[in-house]
């Protein structure tokens, strides 16, 4: 009996046809634009020692407490499939001895991430991110520039309409200590209404409650104090400078004091690009400043800022999927013309023309195949034409045909 067909793991998707092209379009646009801003691309391993994430992202973050794909490998080491790439990039900066020279480094990455979440539209267990990190820059201009680059990508993809940059500051350590005390007072007063998770957070990391998705928590968060009155003068000035630079770069912003980000390593700037076009999964790009992470990885104090964006969510916002390239079909009328056809086929490809040949079949079959492939033109090599050094060129959209010198075929199709 035949085996039952296998299915992909829940929350994973195959990228085929249109899906792949949309995905690829997002990544190549981002890669091209980040290069304009002076970013180099890094690729770090898809799995890391669990410690790389467990400590840096914060024990009480959703990602660490519920979403990591961690396992013991055959040698007994605890390994985790990366749920995000910032920790890996910082680990790589330290492991490769790059923390002392040539800073700041601007790093771009693209690749798959893994989180054990409830799969739904725009939320998968294997998804993909593009991301940008400025490593070793404490200046507010770094924050503004990396955000402007993200905005540039959204504009280039034609999806910036209806996407809003929401921005907040988490202040410096002194601001946060004062703020934390005020939050503890507020949440303690409303303790009985908090979810079980948030009661744990109240003990371990009360700011995390601000990022809770629980309905009851959200009502209590709505009346919580904001950080603004607790900001030190320096932290407030830093935020002002970021906002001023963003205005100069022409990036529209909306201040949102509720943006805190889900991971522990952030300070100062925190931001999200959000849209209401994706239902509940409305955050397309998110990031902030993280000044303590490189130290967590065993390096020297290194101020950094960056963002990550979900490729699937960006791809869903595209108005149209880029079409597949339309080939030129090369068609030998009989076996005697096949060698000449293969020669022409390779000449076209070397000149950058997408060209196809059917592996078998008579003229009629090969024309059918050309139409199936949406060929834009056919070059038909017949016995008489070939003897005179010519070939028939059919424009498959116009339905017109002409006899042209074989030697001109490539230049006609590259024009
Ligand atoms: P969310 O609030 O939607 O869970 P998050 O705060 O967990 O997002 P980040 O860790 O900031 O997300 O990741 C950056 C971006 O990666 C998100 O804004 C989103 O576009 C994308 N992303 C995160 N998790 C997923 C997922 N499971 N599936 C698809 N995209 C995701
Ligand atoms: Mg999440």
TrEMBL record:
A molecular function (GO) term: histidine-tRNA ligase activity
Protein's UniProt keywords contain Membrane: no
Reactions mediated catalytically: tRNA(His) + L-histidine + ATP = L-histidyl-tRNA(His) + AMP + diphosphate + H(+)
Alphabetized PROSITE patterns for the sequence: AA_TRNA_LIGASE_II (PS50862)
First-level EC class: ligase
Domain (Aminoacyl-transfer RNA synthetases class-II family profile): residue spans on this chain: 10-332
Domain of life: Bacteria
This protein's UniProt keywords: Aminoacyl-tRNA synthetase, ATP-binding, Cytoplasm, Ligase, Nucleotide-binding, Protein biosynthesis
HAMAP family recorded: His_tRNA_synth (MF_00127)
Subunit relationships: Homodimer.
Protein name (Swiss-Prot/TrEMBL): Histidine--tRNA ligase
Organism lineage string: Bacteria, Pseudomonadati, Pseudomonadota, Alphaproteobacteria, Acetobacterales
């Amino acid at each position: 009996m035949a085996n039952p067909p296998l299915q992909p793991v829940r929350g994973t998707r195959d990228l085929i046809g249109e899906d792949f092209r949309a995905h690829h379009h997002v990544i190549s646009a981002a890669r091209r634009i980040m290069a304009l801003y002076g970013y180099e691309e890094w690729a770090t391993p898809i799995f890391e020692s669990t410690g790389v994430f467990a400590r840096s992202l914060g024990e009480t973050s959703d990602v660490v407490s519920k979403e990591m794909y961690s396992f013991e490998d055959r040698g007994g080491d605890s390994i985790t499939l990366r749920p995000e790439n910032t920790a890996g990039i910082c680990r790589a900066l330290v492991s490769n001895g790059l923390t002392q020279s040539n800073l700041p480094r601007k790093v771009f990455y693209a690749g798959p991430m893994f989180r054990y979440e409830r799969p739904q539209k725009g939320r998968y267990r294997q998804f993909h991110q593009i991301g940008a990190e400025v490593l070793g820059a404490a200046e507010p201009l770094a924050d503004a520039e990396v955000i402007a680059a993200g905005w540039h990508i959204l504009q280039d993809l034609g999806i910036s309409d209806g996407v809003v940059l929401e921005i907040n500051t988490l202040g410096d350590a002194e601001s946060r200590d004062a703020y934390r005390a005020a939050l503890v007072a507020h949440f303690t007063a409303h303790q009985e209404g908090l979810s079980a998770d948030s009661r744990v957070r109240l003990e371990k990391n009360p700011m995390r409650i601000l990022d809770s998705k629980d309905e009851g928590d959200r009502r209590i968060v709505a009346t919580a104090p904001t950080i603004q009155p607790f900001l030190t003068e320096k932290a407030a000035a830093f935020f002002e400078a970021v906002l001023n630079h963003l205005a100069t770069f022409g990036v529209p912003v909306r201040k949102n004091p509720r943006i805190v980000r889900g991971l522990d390593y952030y300070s100062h700037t925190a931001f999200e690009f959000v849209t209401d076009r994706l239902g509940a999964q409305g955050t397309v790009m998110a990031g902030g400043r993280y000044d303590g992470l490189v130290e967590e990885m065993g390096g020297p104090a290194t101020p950094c800022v960056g963002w990550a964006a979900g490729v699937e969510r960006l791809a869903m916002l595209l108005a149209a999927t880029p079409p597949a390239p339309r080939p030129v079909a090369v068609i030998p009328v009989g076996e005697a013309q096949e060698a000449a056809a293969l020669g022409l086929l390779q000449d076209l490809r070397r000149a950058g023309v997408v060209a196809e040949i059917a592996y078998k079949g008579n003229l009629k079959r090969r024309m059918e195949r050309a139409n199936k492939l949406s060929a834009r033109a056919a070059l038909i090599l017949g016995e008489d034409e070939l003897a005179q050094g010519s070939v028939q060129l059919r424009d498959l959209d116009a339905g017109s045909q002409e006899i042209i010198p074989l030697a001109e075929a490539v230049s006609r199709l590259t024009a």
